[in-house]
Structure formats: structure tokens, C-alpha cells
Amino acid sequence: MTTTFLDIVKNCDNFPYPNEKIDEENLMLSTVPLLLNNVKIGLIPKTTISALKKYNEQHKKPYPFIIEDTFVTFASHLNTFEERTQIIKNLLITWREEKTFPALEGWRDELYPVYGPSNDIAFVIERSATPLFGVLTFGVHLSAYIRTPEGKLKMWIAKRSKTKPKWPGYLDNTVAGGIPYMLSTSETVVKEAMEEASLPAEIAEKAKPVGAITYFIVTKNGLQPEAEYVYDLELPIDVIPKPLDGEVECFYLWDIDEVKTHILANEFKPNCALVIIDFMIRHSIIKPENEPSYLEILSRLHRRFEFPAPTF
Amino acid sequence: MTTTFLDIVKNCDNFPYPNEKIDEENLMLSTVPLLLNNVKIGLIPKTTISALKKYNEQHKKPYPFIIEDTFVTFASHLNTFEERTQIIKNLLITWREEKTFPALEGWRDELYPVYGPSNDIAFVIERSATPLFGVLTFGVHLSAYIRTPEGKLKMWIAKRSKTKPKWPGYLDNTVAGGIPYMLSTSETVVKEAMEEASLPAEIAEKAKPVGAITYFIVTKNGLQPEAEYVYDLELPIDVIPKPLDGEVECFYLWDIDEVKTHILANEFKPNCALVIIDFMIRHSIIKPENEPSYLEILSRLHRRFEFPAPTF
Asked: Which terms in the Gene Ontology molecular function aspect does this entry carry (chains A, B) (predicted)?
């Protein structure tokens, strides 16, 4: 059967919706909320729970985590940002040493914020560990494009380096990156535009925020509800993105039909394909009259989460 | 407390989400799905159920509707488009004569399609009755705007006629209308652009489809899950929309700050405010860094429904 844009969206937004039945035997899809002051800030797959119980038992009482059938939360003596951050750090060092989770083999030494009630940061956590707790992560994705003198739109597509630990050799947006602790969305765009595409700040600052996609992907590493703020950047035709930090192998300048073909051939990193599908909807390339699943695609590109999110 | 864009969105997308508790005593929010071949095609508020039971009992057996605690569906002898359309028509004529529902006082004599499994049209129904069955309805909304010689964006805003039965005197998008049976989205745009704004086809055809908003509004008349396909149209500065069919009183050409002020003052028809909020996100006026509820707004503008939708 031919692959459709909806199939591509479902490859990425693949966590069951409330009306879809979850096989409770699947310990990855069967989850327990991570609470802070009764607010849900993560969705812990049951594959994490037994390791969390073991970690508790390696500790003297009071245990650091309260682990009930219907929720997990921090013990009451861990009630500050610093204390929560420290216990999560200790836990992850233990799990990394004991090789408890393959996810931690991709250790990045990057700290991601986890938002709590009132949008305060509840704690920060090593990036590679976020799927073990199903916490919402944030990134920016920039689509750079040109208009030819004939008015034709072409997109700058990155090819990920073959040495990247995740999705090596796959196609990617022109610039993309996670939003680390203490950076805003537009600061992240400017930083990543230089690191990944050699685009100087005076050009990257012209990128326009035009929305966000939100989706919930299940991978072998765990649960990843993600929000990617999307930026458009029309480049002059003589500005050529170039790899700088080794994360990108090369850039292609493709017309829309070429981009579509590579999306439908599953050659893009899944979430990057979604950013381009959103781009194509906003730029009237995908239309109500040529896409039978227009509404379903739009809804799945903007999945609603119950988690707190940042205010930049 | 100051009104926010999120408040404006919640005014319109006000049906509870799956994680929100519904007061079962509220017969409008307590619902029973309308099924066709086991596919949910509507969400009937319990305020409709007793009238539906009464209608059944006015009939000889076999009753036209199967009304169970957990679903409503058509009796098996009503298994074609024509038969379902006819029984709904007879039912509504009865209810209109008996003044069963205030919703039917706004009788429009316009037929709306209700989609069923495989995206076939299950039946058509008088427009004013759609909230009694919570069926998904479809419309187009066009935002016309100009750029001044200084590059400033101004939007054409319609003021609804004071004689309109719904939302008289409220502000509206430049052009908007329901998609009637047998018209496509772009045909509806062209038709409404002439009727409401005197814009000729050669101009209206330049409108670009740039997405859709989907939301679920509860009104005193019933339940309205709605999808509005959104179009942008940049007009030359010398093209002036003018009322034609009496539904619009006049047009204003406002800069963005004026538009924002009128939105936050609740002067727009609720769903039209949402179309402009979506416009402002796509045009980088509302940004991650100036809107704390950016992600929540985007998700609520693209609510996911389980109903079948058209393929134009």
C-alpha cells in the first residue's frame, strides 16, 4: 500500500489516544503519571517502575520516591528544584553504571528542564533520560527555503551525519535542536543555525516563529511527548547553508516534489517530516482538496498534552 | 482579571476534554454517540434523547431510531442515504411544528452533510439542527489583509449585520460561511467572497488555504464540533471589500493592535476570533516569547475529533 502523509504523521505521533485501547501487557504503553504537587509532569512507562523501586530499596529510609499503583512522586523531603535535580542525577548515574537502560548509552551531558505547576522548573534532567520518565521536551526546527527567480519554492534539507547516535544518515530540517536549560526559543535558533548550518546571527535572526508541532512518540527508549517550535526562514539565493559542527553531512536544495518523495520514502527523521508537512500546509502545498486526511493531520500535528509548559 | 488569548480560545473550545470531569447532571454535556455501522458520527446531548424517544413512540413499529443507554443509531430498515435523510427531515419538521427546540427557530433551509464510515455522506440535515445531534460541521473563513507601503499589516474585519439571527453586530472575518452540501472548500470561498464582500472570483481565487481550526463549542442550542478551513488573501490596497447580501454591515481596515484590542474585548463572534489568533501565530505576531499559552492555544485550535470528515 502506498505511504501517505497521514502514515508519516502516525509513525511519529504513535502513542495511543484516549479513545484508543492500550494493551496493559505492554509495559511501555502502560503508564503511571509522575506528579508534583498533584500536577502531572511526566508519564512513566512501567518498564521504568521496577528499576525505580529497586533504587528506592538501595536507599536508607525515607525513600526518595513515593511509588504507588496510580502515581509516582518525589518524597516530601525532596521539595526544592535543587533536591529533585540532585536525586534524579544520582539515580541516573546509578542506572548508567548498572547499564539498566539502553537509553542511557546515548548519554549527552545536556540538561533539559522539566516544568512543574505554575510553570516553574521542577528539576533538570540529562537529555537521554527524558524518555524513561515521559517528560515533555522542547526543541526548535527551522525550515530555510528560497524562491527561484521564476517564483518556485525550494527547501534546504540537511542530511544527518552517519556518525550521529540517533537517526544517522536520515534527512532533517535545515536547522534543529533541543532547547537546553536557560535558553529561549529564538536564542536556540540562532545558536543552532551557526553550529549546524554556518548561518550567522544576522541571518538567523530573520527566522520567523510560525507555530509549533506537538506529538507523542514511543521509541524503544521510552515515551517522548515533544513540542517543536517551528520557524520559517526565506534565504536569499546566494546564502548557502554549510555544515560546521559535524552533525550534518551535507545540505540539499530540493524542490517541493523532491522533498515529498523523500518524506513518503521514510528517509526523514520522523519528527522532521512532520515539520515539513506543517510547512507544506501553511504554504498551500498540501491543501484540503489534495489531502484527504487534512484535518486529522492538522490535529495530530498539534496534540494536546496535560503537562505544564514553559513561558519564555 | 485581564482577558487573555487563551480565555478567548476557551470561550469557543468549551466542551470538556477527556481528562476533564463532566457533571453527569448537565444533560447538555452528558452525551450518547450517534453511530452508523458502529462508527461515531455525532454526539447527541441527553437534552435531545427524550424528544427522540417521543418521536419513536409517535411512529408505528419498527421505530426509526434505536435508542440505547450507550448509543443511538438508525433502525436497520433505514440503511440508505435517502432513507436516513428523509427520516431526519420528517423528525425535524415535527420538532419545528411542536416547537421542541429553540435551535430550530433559526431554521435556515440549508442542508449540511454528515459524514459516515469511508467518508461517504451518511445523510444531510437542516443546518440549524446540527447542534441537536452534535455532528461535525464545516466552514471556510478567509482573512483578507493588506500591507501598507511602509510594510505594515492591516486586516479587513467585517461587522455582522444587526439583523443576523446569530451574533448580530459582532465582528467577523472578512469572509466566512458554512460549506453546504455539494460545494468544495474553494468553491465556497469564491461564492461567499462575492456574497459577503463583493470580491470577484478572479480575486477570491487567489486566496490560499493555509490550514484549518477545529474546536468544540457548547451553546444553548447544543453541541457544535466544528472545522473551519482557513484561507489568507493579501489584497492590493485599492481593493475594498463591500457588503453585498446584507449579512455584513460594514468592513473595517484595522492594524494588528486594533484587531487584538477588539478580540480581547470579546467583540468578535467566538470562532472568528480563533481564526485571527491562528492568523497571528502563522504571521509571527503571536510568538512563543510573547504568549505564555502558545502550545495550549495551538492544540486547542486543532482539536482532534473521532468523527469522519470529508475528502473534497
From this structure: 8-oxo-dGDP phosphatase activity
